[in-house]
Amino acid sequence: MHGIWIALISGALMSIQGVFNTEVTKHTSIWVSAGWVQATALAVCAVMWMATGRQELSGLWQVRPWYMLTGGVIGALITYTVIRSVDSLGPARSAMLIVIAQILVAYGIEVLGLFGVEKAGLEWKKAAGAALAAAGIVIFYQS
């Protein structure tokens, strides 16, 4: 149950952040806004690291494969694409498309066993659920 609440909070925060970042972009630029997001995230992470135990930073150099360290680059691209989508589609439509993309990509990662994730077989019920979610977006778009 704890994981469900955390996921719901995450989704809510992502939607709020997308709106905030889009507004900041209107007064600055997309890269200033995205940079501000990353800089403030770094500051919060540094404070939390200092407050919660200070694990060794050298562990980063032991991460294999090395591309697993590109999360920050992906985070910057996420910030950019969310700002652009909220600006052009509005918060609700962009959030729905973002979520369906997350579902499809995450399921593809599981089915194919990509990036070190344990491979799971294709289940038609899950595939049908993803298709139903996509159909929901089409219905929402038409209203």
Q: How would you summarize this macromolecular structure in one to three sentences?
A:
This protein has 143 residues and is an all-alpha fold. The protein has helices spanning 2-27, 30-51, 71-89, 91-112, 124-142. The longest helix is centred in the N-terminal third of the chain and has 26 residues, at 2-27.
Give an overview of the whole structure:
This protein is an all-alpha fold and 143 residues long. The chain folds into two domains: 1-89, no CATH class; 91-143. Helix content is 76%, strand content 0%. It has five helices and no strands. Helix 1 (2-27) crosses helix 3 and helix 3 (71-89) packs antiparallel against helix 4.
Terminal-residue CA separation: 34 Å
Number of helices: 5
**Largest sheet report:** none
- Shape designation: globular
- Roughly what is the average pLDDT, rounded to an integer? 91
Strand content: under 5%
The total domain count is 2
Defining traits:
143 residues; mainly alpha; 2 domains; 5 helices; globular
List the helices and strands and how they pair.
Blueprint: H1 2-27, H2 30-51, H3 71-89, H4 91-112, H5 124-142
Helix pairs in contact: 1-2, 1-3, 2-3, 3-4, 4-5
